[in-house]
Amino acid sequence: MKKRNQSKKLLTLGMALSLAFVGILPYANVSVSAAEIKQQETANQLLNRFGLYHSTNEVKASTVQKDKEKQLFSETVLIVKYKNVLSSTEHQKAGTKLVRRISSLHYDVVQITGKKKLEDVVSAYAKNPNVISVSRSAYFSRAAVDDAKSYDMYHLTTLQVNKALALAGKHPVKVAVVDTGIDVHHPELKNKIISNYNVMNPMQKGAVDVHGTHVAGIIAGEKGNGIGGYGVFPNAQIISIDVFNRSFFSSDYIVAEGILEAIRQKAQVINLSLGSPVPSPIVEEAIKKAVAANITVVAAAGNSGINTYEYPAAFEGVIGVGATNAKNELADFSTYGPAVDVVAPGEDIYSSIYDIDKKSTFAKLSGTSMATPMVTATVAMLLSKNPKLTPYEINYILNKTAKDLGGKRIRPQIRLWLSQSGCGAAV
Questions:
Q1: Do 198 and 245 form a contact (C-beta atoms < 8 A)?
Q2: Is 351 among the catalytic positions?
Q3: What range defines the domain where residue 414 resides?
Q4: What integer pLDDT is reported at residue 22 of this predicted model?
């Protein structure tokens, strides 16, 4: 789906991070065999060989830069990809303990123990012939949103939703909302949630929160119940997968497990209104697994307001979504550029929310988090008519039938989906 050169994308990001941070890069291969590693190498030299470390002679990081790095990566959690399963003893010798094993992707999530230095731990793993790569666990956040007071739903008119719904099919479509927990008792959603799972705390249901509830309402809010508004595709069946447990941040391996859970539950579309500036390899592999299972993945492009890459939206195979406003202009907060495949209304969007005092209620929020579920709902609508469509066919249909908004910051390939010309033409 992304037409750009993948290696160029990674090179650009690597260069940016090398200028900004000291220490470990987001990910790096550790595929050199133990026989190739010279014992006399210093920790810095060894890490340098794997592209994992910039010595202090090369990069002088300020306190601000170090603080920013702490916001992007865990200081003690590593993601280890293995050829053959690693034993507890192997992890212990490296200076870590096993936190979680994601066997379907061949990854171990480990925590550094005691006062072990990061360099020493990575050096130990680098010497293990069963270790393919080591990366620092990257943090993911739900895209920020802004409150508003007006309760109109201009996006339903902009997208000509009623005309599109008249053309929708009868096939049931399962949509996984990998996000915060959803208010399953909300009058707009109580008949839509078919599964409720908490990745961080599997013994409990999803921790009810504003963000996931708002996203789910944009997709599938009840139509004709006389309450609030309604979703872009009210017939969608929602699989709620909580990867935040009411925290503002999550980890890459938790997000990856949320995607794998969506695959296990046979979702047909995955909505990811979350992101990170870090191209986490474990999340990328989970997405590849989803696309291979014929699941369409839709993700928020981010709220940076600049031309940049946000992940997972920028990954190959993902439909990256930017946001527009009521004037069909790119929203000031929306990330833009080649990583964005399509745009949709995302500013001042009215939908269901959960408020700790008011409980089930409504509000207007803004963000690419709000634009993403509109595209997700559109995908679900297409699948209701033709469930055999592949993710790449869906992306092609969206781009070919969308309206080109043009403009300096909206590149020709970034288009707004209009239901009459998009879903109407497709179905």
A1: yes
A2: no
A3: 143-426
A4: 25
